[in-house]
Amino acid sequence: MTDAPAPPASLARLADFADLDHDRAERRGYPEAVYCEGKTPAQVGAIAAAVRDCGTATTLFTRASPEHAEAVLTEVPDARYDREARMLAWPPEPPDPTGGPVVVVAAGTSDLPVAREALLTVTHLGRACDLVVDVGVAGLHRVLARLDLLRGARAIVVVAGMDGALPSVVAGLVPAPVVAVPTSVGYGAAFGGIAPLLAMLNACSPGVAVVNIDNGYGGGHLAAQIAAPAPRAGA
């Protein structure tokens, strides 16, 4: 009888503030993500070291400040860092895509940070993904010009602030489910994303699911699950 291997020393660094869910990918099919906002760079760096040493599946670090990114890159220098999305991914290369394609749609350029968070999430969870930018309802010809791409998607993530009308428009044109992500983009009466959130929850078109304000990760994750390969018979 052989002794079980000793856990990596890096796990001991987490004892006071984290307990990583290394089995989540096995249990759910998708790995745990690390939400960095509110954590210190030292805490995020220690988590990155444990992820590296334990061989955890693809791990996303979301809402990462430049200081968080520096701490992660110190432990895993090859991690992919997208400053605009405030996200890191390790390992840096996404898996080969399976399942159906996803399209992420950004209503305006100001919505791009959240849209890129959704895009990277979808990609690193193993789906092919395209990004369509600046197609808000102020110029409907722009979204109509992308209908062929949109109608070929298994799932669509629509990211919008201001009046939040774009998810309803898109959902009325395509067969795929639409995941609506309200953003905090907008003038005062948008109330930091509350106005588009309520508009999306009241969508007239069926087939629209809504995630929280600025939650590109949550929107991308849901779309990746919708677009997953069909389970094998008997599995």
The proportion of residues forming helix, as a percent range, comes to 25-40%
Strands ordered across the widest β-sheet = 6-5-7-8-9
Overall average residue pLDDT: 90
Secondary structure tally: strands: 9
- Radius of gyration, taken over Cα atoms and rounded to an integer in Å: 19 Å
In angstroms, what separates the terminal alpha carbons? 33 Å
Largest sheet, in brief, is: 5 strands, parallel
Low-confidence segments: none
Tell me the CATH architecture of the largest domain. Answer: 3-Layer(aba) Sandwich
CATH class of the largest domain: Alpha Beta
- Number of folding domains? 2
Structural class: alpha/beta
Tags for this model:
235 residues, alpha/beta, single chain, Rossmann fold, 4-stranded mixed beta sheet, 34% helix, 2 domains
Write a brief structural summary:
This protein is 34% helix and 15% strand. The model has no long low-confidence stretch (mean pLDDT 90). It has helices at 9-12, 24-28, 41-54, 66-75, 112-124, 140-144, 147-151, 166-171, 194-201, 216-226, and strands at 34-35, 59-62, 80-82, 87-90, 102-106, 129-132, 155-160, 178-182, 208-210.
Structure description:
- With 235 residues, the protein is α/β, with parallel strands linked by helices.
- The chain has two domains: 9-90, no CATH class; 102-226, Rossmann fold.
- Helices cover 34% and strands 15% of the residues.
- The chain contains ten helices and nine strands.
- The chain has helices at residues 9-12, 24-28, 41-54, 66-75, 112-124, 140-144, 147-151, 166-171, 194-201, 216-226; strands spanning 34-35, 59-62, 80-82, 87-90, 102-106, 129-132, 155-160, 178-182, 208-210.
- Strands 6-5-7-8-9 form a five-stranded parallel beta sheet. It has a four-stranded mixed beta sheet with strand order 1-2-4-3, sandwiched between helices.
- Helix 3 (41-54) packs parallel to helix 4 and helix 5 packs parallel to helix 10 (216-226).
- The mean pLDDT is 90.
